[in-house]
User: Fold this.
Amino acid sequence: MARSYQELLAEAREVIPEITVAELAESVSADPGTLHIIDVREQSEWDEGYVPGSVHVPRGFLESRIAGVVGPDEPLVLVCAGGHRSLLAGQTLRNMGFSNVSSLVGGFTRWKQSGQDVAVPRTLSGDQRSRYSRHLLIPEVGEAGQLKLLDSKVLMIGAGGLGSPAAYYLAAAGVGTIGLVDDDVVDASNLQRQIIHTTDRVGMLKGESAKIAIEALNPDVQVNVHATRVTRENVLELIAGYDLIVDGADNFPTRYLLADASLMTGTPLVHASILRFEGHASVFMPHDGPCYRCLFPEPPPPALAPSCGEAGVLGVLCGVMGNIQANEAIKVLLGIGDTLAGRLLVYDALGMTFTELKVRRDPNCPACGPDATLEFRDYEAWCAGPHANPVGVST
Amino acid sequence: MSTVRIPPVLRPAVGGARELSVEGATVGEVLESIYSDHPEVRAQLVTDGGELHRFVNIYLNDEDVRMLDWLDTPVEDRDTLLILPAMAGGASASPAHP
Assistant:
């Protein structure tokens, strides 16, 4: 025999105790964190505000998601807009074996009208919800993680072989601010690997060209073009305000300068370098893991350090290594997973092998050791080798 | 015989090989064996005073030999030694000058 909505509610009321706004408020203030408050309303209702401390599990997902939120014997209060859906949700949870379920009389509407505190979530817009939907499905990212990415600021050194894929994917991922440091212009010989640039932008400043590509891809991203080389004079100013540095530099003086500046400012440094078919990648967390100079205390002489301009590089290799950087940057920003901190990944594209080497903090590291006194040096002269300038002597 | 992986910058000095199979009971012996077959490698890796340059890292399997017994570290058959100088990377035609 068919039963009416009113009959269903009446049945639910017989088994689900109801608590008042005053009781809930008292319970929360007397014993915060013990009582789980589950809000079963729809997303758009939740976005307007909720009882502080509550967890959002829409009614439609209640059965599938509740187990990850609260245990079957823990006390929980269900909240909806007016107190009806929460009663029916309570019935469902009772059927699933949840023993300590109650429902807020009058729901969130009465809570708000009673003058209780209301939390308003920072939320993604509808467009953003659609754009980042595949991130939102990943528990490690989710809406909170996506909002974190949108608040994040990444400084990309170089908008070239590594910077193209790294910045492009970070932009697609919704990293809200990307600074691009490069004073070079797009050359036809770049296009074999620097996929953020296009043939019709040859001759344009790389930062400006990348900005066009990023803005066309994702309007959420603020692109700051820094059309300059990184120098001792400007590096601290460039880094200020950014959460993380991605090193896509093409030379040792810049890499050692960035390593020192990363330590001075406490800014994580995501490293990669490339040559021919070989790529290196690591993550340097300042004073919390090895630094670049724990790994490579001194630069090799120019004869052993050819640039890709001299030795060549497989274009695709840049994509692999730049995307490893983007991957690691996102993990550092979100604080998830195991990064390459303490490890150097060596990728041989020709043999298709990935080799992991241990990188340990050097207790005597001249840059991050306990006795280190960090100051900028003449990196150019230092990397030019002992004939140009005695190794290790700051000038 | 252990396997020694040769980085791109040293391959011209060993006739282009990416890997060498080398005899030697210690890291030092393996390197000496490479130097005797390929003298140019010594010139690139070793200082005038006979020490390995500080810009060269040697790994036995995944461990930096600086953390082991340096050149005296024993090498077993089927171990892999990896010679690893830092790479600047990058593809600029004109190197940047910080």
In short: Chain A has two domains: 5-113, 152-382.
